[in-house]
Amino acid sequence: xxxxxxxxxxxxxxxxxxxxxxxxxxxxxxxxxxxxxxxxxxxxxxxxxxxxxxxxxxxxxxxxxxxxxxxxxxxxxxxxxxxxxxxxxxxxxxxxxxxxxxxxxxxxxxxxxxxxxxxxxxxxxxxxxxxxxxxxxxxxxxxxxxxxxxxxxxxxxxxxxxxxxxxxxxxxxxxxxxxxxxxxxxxxxxxxxxxxxxxxxxxxxxxxxxxxxxxxxxxxxxxxxxxxxxxxxxxxxxxxxxxxxxxxxxxxxxxxxxxxxxxxxxxxxxxxxxxxxxxxxxxxxxxxxxxxxxxxxxxxxxxxxxxxxxxxxxxxxxxxxxxxxxxxxxxxxxxxxxxxxxxxxxxxxxxxxxxxxxxxxxxxxxxxxxxxxxxxxxxxxxxxxxxxxxxxxxxxxxxxxxxxxxxxxxxxxxxxxxxxxxxxxxxxxxxxxxxxxxxxxxxxxxxxxxxxxxxxxxxxxxxxxxxxxxxxxxxxxxxxxxxxxxxxxxxxx
Length: 493
Description:
Number of helices: 22
């Protein structure tokens, strides 16, 4: 059975249920299992399998303490009628390349793939003999917040508190969160950027006195829904296998042929899932990390130095405006031949000096698999226009970062490239309209209507309905007050 421990020590030995419930290790590290890759997922019978069956094949390897019935129930509930495409993550041709659409879930963003199933996992981690409840505390750069709120709203035995950076998410993203229904949800803006909010959430998890008070007074334990939670990360592995299955069905590849994936990413979770897929036997030739102007990952992957002490830019791809890529720590653990001492050393340097440097041999190994590129905002706008002109396909600004990087890189003959499309363009209608030369001076909802009328594409009904939804949450706190706010929310749960 898989046993989980921190990236920074091997003292823990938790089951996947325990690791999912806990969220983050006591020493601040992320949960990993040294058994990853010992068992693989068969690819010779992938073609024709529905998404739900592929999910079962992958998750039963990664989360092997869930029973067959538990997994099947979680998967059936997570990937059902709430998806607008029965393939869940459909792959479509885009010129000579392919795009995998990850935005057909209830909040129109790729986070739905994991956050529709994480609450179902959580519900099955609760000890049978107690009244203890879980409160999810998470920081969002835009999409995680709404997807987590939608997944956890009114889920039995749970509550959720979401922090987002004030004024630094799109209007549609903000409305998605602040209009969320449910008796167990809380949403609060923070005066700061995403890194401020995420770092403080991590500190809240490490505050043992706060945790003890909340547990004693409210019978509540805190956990995470960010991709630092292993239960949030592993469902994302599934769609890489689904992409491969769909390429097999299209006869674009034969079993065993390699594939490249181009992944827009800020927190490194989406692309890390591709690395896990490779460890499980998927023939991934290259994972291309695409960044926006906050190109800290680009610099790291080209120089071996990770330096978060740099200007923070608010861009038109706000979900990628991140300077501390939490999930990088997991990749470094595996690539360093599972060396927790090295990871501790690197993460201490990051905390103390704002930077770390990996040994040259480790960088060479990382670069054998991970390629990288980035796009500035002019290039993002240009890609949205070019992709629509050439292919009649509308990109959101995050996916456009990936599209730019893909266009810059020479394709390997015979190796298909799959671009992961992370959000519906209707979450960012003003930017998309500006890029396409359409009317963009009205409200976001007028922009949506214009985009739909001019491109013949359909507005996700849930996004259009936000115009008349009631705003429930208007709280805004200083970064220093986030812990107190969490305590208040736990008392009300």
